[in-house]
From TrEMBL, chains A, B:
GO biological process: one example: negative regulation of DNA-templated transcription
SUPFAM superfamilies associated with the record: GAF domain-like, Winged helix' DNA-binding domain
Transcription as UniProt keyword: yes
Domain IclR-ED: 87-268
The name this protein goes by in its record: Glycerol operon regulatory protein
Task of the protein: May be an activator protein for the gylABX operon.
Superkingdom assignment: Bacteria
DNA sequence: AGACTGCGTTCCGTCGAGCGCAACACGCGG
DNA sequence: CCGCGTGTTGCGCTCGACGGAACGCAGTCT
């Protein structure tokens, strides 16, 4: 039952593009597919969505109208295109409020932000990129433009390195695409990157200076669950001029300590 | 703005407690209903969800399984209960990145935070409570515990007053439940509160000193869209001792100016 | 202007997808 | 052990979701 009956050869190339699809309740599947398309494109019309899903225009419309009734999507104007709506944010608020990872990590992250004066982030691995779960602003006015929910490349960030360091060889290969170059300091050699990961594993922390963006420095340490797996990563990041070499040692000590504290609260080292 | 709602007079057997429901594609409607229930309860079992929606267990299971395939829900353990998942957060990231309100407001909010030294929030009206969309921390270490996605009572906050001031009588009645008392300064009289709203409308800003919490002061101004409707509210809040009467004038000037600037960027006053 | 092409939206008849039923596998407590 | 509670799975019947086609409206080309 793998292939969906695509009987219409209207001429349009039937490209399932990307998504799970094909598993579960058909109409719900399609509706969620719409959300994913909108997340990717930012904004789409009914016709566009219909082509993307390989369904009739009217079908796409009915689905999107249902989503709209629940405020998960909204249209830019009457008779306009569609985009993701506020309902998503409401759900997201309820999600983070309940995730015990965020729950446990938040007070510690806040203290870390106060101690270092820089921005603290918590990220998890999600489909070959880093998903930022939470962010606590530093005391300085100069803040990074990241935001919860953003996708960040794994090989050019301290968080990414930490998260990858917890994977075995097979999973690593799957998660690691090609290593894009962002700055002259980005590590792009595969062998070289594996060495870096070994170093991270050994040291228990990761550093990235100017690797994603010139002038941006970040350090990160792993958060482990009761089984000892790396489930998340906690980082401190800020402008490189505020995080010079001689200050990094101090910051590293704080980050590693904070991450270990969260790990303990999640049950690591108990039993 | 045709309402899709009233085509049929509810043949439902059991009261679906709360939610939109009854409009659009049935199975999608139910699936989204599940998300809303999970957002409310935090965690539920299949059977529980089934009775909540008034459907058969197996139906609820199939729906929740589809949601799980898209990572919008996850189960606490194999054969365990269900809760909202990371997929929601991914969608939320894509949402905030594209919502032009947040997009436009963020740099201005940040500047306002720098100028005042206090925390800036942006909130919208969402089902008879305030939904906080964005937050920029002030320069001081002492920060409020709020977070994006939280629901806050409308009648005891400056943001809430501003948002309510944009409604007509009918909508106001619908949005306003009973006026709970939080502190001795909370306005609880209905007539009194309407006078306060009239003042807010006239002045173009709202103030709340010790009304939600003793020691917490906040001021807010409306953000308008191209049609002139109040779509959001921007506030500055901090400890009352840092925001004494004689400083409020200055802060108010800044807030009103910032909110007006955002409104302009959203097309207000243009043509 | 007028024809034309694209959009989002609506109506309707049909047929297969999704529903409820019932049976299943498992965990718990009496 | 049995009963009762989960979450999970096949299976036929039926009703709800689907695609086709037409509509109203906005631009755009001729």
């Amino acid at each position: 039952m793998a292939d969906v009956a695509d009987l219409q050869d209207e001429g349009e190339k039937v490209a399932p593009s990307s998504a799970v699809m094909g598993a579960g309740v058909q109409s719900v599947d399609r509706a969620l597919g719409i959300l994913e398309v909108l997340a990717r494109t930012g904004e789409s019309g009914v016709t566009e969505l219909a082509v993307e899903l390989g369904v009739h225009k009217s079908t796409a419309f009915r689905l999107v109208a249902t989503l709209e009734a629940h405020r998960l999507v909204e249209q830019t104007s009457d008779r306009g295109r569609y985009r993701l709506g506020m309902g998503i944010l409401r759900l997201a608020g309820a999600t983070t409020a309940r995730l015990d990872l965020v729950q446990e990590a938040r007070p510690i992250a806040r203290q870390l932000a106060v101690d270092t004066g820089e921005t603290v982030n918590i990220a998890v691995l999600s489909e070959s990129s880093a998903l930022y779960l939470d962010q606590v602003a530093g005391t300085s006015a100069l803040q990074p433009h990241n935001w919860v929910g953003q996708h960040i490349p794994l090989h050019a960030t301290s968080n990414g390195k930490v998260l990858l360091s917890g994977l075995d060889e097979a999973a690593l290969d799957a998660a690691l695409g090609k290593l894009a170059t962002y700055t002259p300091h980005t590590i792009t050699g595969r062998a070289e990157f594996r060495e870096e990961l070994a170093r991270v594993r050994e040291q228990g922390y990761a550093v990235a200076v100017d690797e994603l963006e010139i002038g941006l420095t970040a350090v990160a340490a792993p958060i482990r669950n009761a089984h000892g797996d790396v489930v998340a990563s906690m980082s401190v990041s800020g402008p490189s001029f505020r995080l010079p070499e001689d200050r990094l040692d101090e910051v590293l000590r704080l980050v590693v300590g904070a991450a270990r504290e969260v790990s303990h609260r999640l049950g690591w080292g108990h039993r």
